[in-house]
Automatic annotation (TrEMBL):
The chain crosses the membrane at residues 15-36, 57-78, 98-121, 128-148, 187-211, 223-240, 326-347, 359-380, 409-432. It is a multi-pass membrane protein. Pfam families: Cyt_bd_oxida_I. Its main location: membrane. It comes from Novosphingobium pentaromativorans US6-1. This is Cytochrome bd-I oxidase subunit I. GO terms for molecular function: electron transfer activity; heme binding; metal ion binding; oxidoreductase activity, acting on diphenols and related substances as donors, oxygen as acceptor. Residues 442-469 are annotated as: Disordered. It comes from the Bacteria. Coiled coil: none annotated. Belongs to the cytochrome ubiquinol oxidase subunit 1 family.
Amino acid sequence: MWDHADALLLARIQFAFTVSFHFIFPAFSIGLASYLAVLEGLWLKTGKALYLDLFRYWLKIFAVAFAMGVVSGIVMSYQFGTNWAVFSDKAGPVIGPLMAYEVLTAFFLEAGFLGVMLFGMERVGRKLHFFATCMVAGGTFVSAFWILSVNSWMQTPTGFEIGANGQFLPGPSWIDVIFNPSFPYRLLHTVTAAYLTTAFAVGGVGAWHLLRERTNAHARKMFSMAMWMAALVAPVQIFLGDAHGLNTLEHQPAKVMAMEGHYQSHPEGAPLILFGIPDSKEKRVDYAIEVPKLSSLILKHDPNAPLAGLDTVPAADQPPVGPVFWAFRVMVGLGFAMLGIGLWSLLGRARGKLYDWRWLHRAAIAMGPSGFIAVIAGWMTTEVGRQPWTIYGLLRTADSASPLDAPAVGASLLAFVVVYFSVFSIGTWYILKLMDKAPQPQESGLEEGPVRTAGITPGPHQHPAGKGA
């Protein structure tokens, strides 16, 4: 069935599939780890059992999501060697150490404190347990730091030298490699997206239980906290997205041209195309709904500023417009929808109706998965918009793949699809089942602890030798 398939296309589909599946879970666990730290900190500060109940409720969900994120991420590292061996050989001296730093710092930090966080509430002091929770939350951020540094270097490579064998070698300063031109913008934009993803997931769950029982104190608290995040952080994210877009215009102008649907240059001010159907064959956007000169105003802060189009970029260097154009609009549209929910919640709060407006709760439930969709759309905008390059302007995707035949890549892709949908569908179903149950007073945690395998210490339900029932 793969005889006439393109091995490169299959390798790209395989990586896109696995990275999209993986990215969902870290985007949730980054924000959820910080939310857990806030809940535990509020419990320690106020002594209110409600915060401890919410902590234990979301801790169970975090444990499942974190585990699925780790498992789904392992596969990606192997693909660098199987499907992208040429890229690994050429870029390995630069990106290899950065990914190793992620393991040595973030992964070890998370692994060292995760067990205390999950099972140590009754085994260590409160302050030590809170410290462990903060370390896990910090570990998720450090992990994002290194991974986004790698990805940003591939987008805006700096601080490297080309060796005699064609390899990319680190220059005299790793600072130039790590803090490449797009990294600060990408880090802030992505981490903030993770916080919003968690906020709307938490808000959706809170709204779900408010529709069932309006007086549920736990549902009220989680919904209120989520709506504060939406109201305060969504405007910040829009600002960060604008700054990231201006940085992209400076360093990757072809990507912005694809995002905007600008096939042609506009010497006297470019319109903002709200919607339309890109036609790359005819080099136009059909049925375009546009606002004259607004794109120039946003990107250049001058409505009459000229903007170059894809007609200035060689055809071989142009990204595919359709996927980038639509992914960008999905991301931006959801971002403004998040802002709308946040403002709506502020109005409800001001009128004392935050827990009574049923349509606000229904809208929050509908927006529950919006963060996950937005981060995937943003990732598509970033990665597809970088094409046809793996290292922007320096190494083409077509020159990065392993010399594999299509049947070999196709078989592994099919295996990934079957395994991922079977395994992670069960995990997602279990998370939704946990969310469907409302948090209760004196919520049970994970204090049963991990299973003892050595048999040295009796389990909690076992009787010591000689004292059987």
